[in-house]
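Predict structure. Chain length: 337.
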Amino acid sequence: MSIKNCIIHSLKRVGESGEINLKTRESENTPEGPIVSLFTQLKQSFQRSAQRQYGLFDPEQGDNPLPGWLKQYENESMGFVSVSKNIAEHLKSKLEESQEGFSAHILIAVEELLEESHLYIFWINHTEAQTIDPELDIDYVNYIDASKLSFVIKLDFNQWKVENWQQYLSVISSRGNKELAQAFLQFCGFISSVNLQQQTDEFLSIVDEYAQTLTPEESKQYKNKIVDYCVEQDMQGNPVNIKELSEELNSKEPEHFVEFVNNKQEEPKEEIYAHRSSLKKFVRFYGREKDLSISFSSDMMGENIIFNQESGELTLKSIPKSLQQQLAKYLKQAKTE
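Prediction complete.
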């Protein structure tokens, strides 16, 4: 069993500025059955999310009690239930600084897998749905929506112990409610240490330089392989390991790509975290306005698609058959009107 400890507490405020009701369990939830399924779904949603941020406990937030409690948990001077209650109380105190109403269950879990240990704190969302009760009447029921994550914090205990390591925390903080988001970030004391978009753009710029040393056909293949690998790693919640990527690209010369990247970086990095949107834009162009939406692979530029930068015109030499059929049908109808 990968879940070492887990427990659920609840926090609720009815209406704005109301009192927050905290309900805590007195014992851990048994890590089997439905709660294991729920944890797995929440973890998968977290890993797949493109909204993750990476960083560390803010060293300037000296009054943050969370690191101290977690160290006490690790050295077994405080039990998991006590730590979890302290965490819930601390979250409640930060939420009291906001005015918004809310209702949430907080799942706190420690997972041990392959000699790695991680703490997860999930803010669980609920969605209302209709059901038919035993009397055949319509009723309402709240169900857990594990696909929508508002607030999550994940701590990598192993990385936390590495001196000067600055990416041991990863969080999701919903942009939908600024007050709750601010309270949650204050609660965990998180500070970002990675500009994902900047880091990804710098890496893709190096990839572009590398592609220019290849033939046009090889260039397209390598770009697609790199993006596919990076996106897959991001969806698994993992950083991109440059050396492993280099081996994936060319098994005969496994060091070729990583050496090229290291020579181009001012401070060579073994791993980077990727910005998924930037990765996809690297191999695919898309744009949308009120009455127009266009999307196509960058491979098509210069062949089937030509862009005139001066006039702003985009010429399509070939279009999908389904679109051809729609256009032909439209023109036929227009002639008969």
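Summary: The two ends are 69 Å apart (CA to CA).
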